[in-house]
Input
Amino acid sequence: MTPTLSLVILCALVALVLASKTERAVPLPCDSGQYTTDGKCCEECPPGEGVAKKCGAKQTVCSQCLDSETFSDIYSHKDQCRPCTECTGLMRMETPCTDSNDAVCICDYNYFFHKVSAKCMPCTVCLVGMGVYSHCGNEHDTVCEECVEETYSERESSLDPCLPCTICDDEIEIELEECTPDSDSVCHNPLMPTYATTTSDMDLSPPSFTNFFPPGGSESPMPGGESTTSSAGSPRFLGHGLNENLIPIYCSILAAVVVGLVAYIVFKRWNSCKQNKQAANNRAATNNQMVTPEGEKLHSDSGISVDSQSLQEQQQQLQAQAEVQAQPLHSGTQEQIVVRVDGGPQLDTPPPGV
Output
């Protein structure tokens, strides 16, 4: 190895050692720009967290922000969590508040934010004969345009554009009124009846009233201030058919009548069965009262029903025979004792002597 090469290697080693010492001498960058008393860089709280204790003798202490209540959207070593913005008055919330983002409020519907006055202002309503070219938004007002080239607008609105005019069919319709920027054209078919009904078995849709315009008339009034005009090749309808509303009513009445008749028949049958059962019970109770204890005993022993009147007659006959046997015979006179078998009273007068 030559002396020159050895000298170059030695110089390189010395330069390397000096460079490493220089790097250790340069301090690391501190984003917060603030240090603790012992020389450490103060840490910053990230978004979603705020400073609970500021950096000083000790390191920074961070705390979590409360969702929908407080937020922090920056890195900071000194800022706390800030309260969320509340949307009040004519403002509505477009984006809710989170722990790292504040709520975003915009003007309510049909209002826009006026930059000059810094307030929410009502959107402009396009007049009759003008339609909406650009709808109203939070950052700009409604943009209106005049209705031209066979278009019209017959009412004030902040939403509806200019509508195309109706084209009458020259072969079957007559144009009663021409289309203007503030009214549609009026077409009339002389052959079209004023009331149309469907005769096809497959078409079950209810009949509807067609729009009829007499000569010199303009439009038929509708509920709510609206009006309808006839379109090309087809009639306009004033409303739904009457049958569509009457059929459910008829069905309800018929169902109520049927249910009432069925209930009446069931009640009559039930009442009749109840009366028959009560009459049978009454007859059974009467028969039970007429049977004497002797008859009930014979009936229970032999199973044969005994008439109570026959038992009474037998008892009376036995009693009469016992009385005849007990009477003494008188001397010199023979008396005839007559005993009624049917249990009646005895005769007081004796029969004539023999």
The chain has a mean pLDDT of 75. The first strand starts at residue 49 and ends at 53. The radius of gyration is 59 Å.
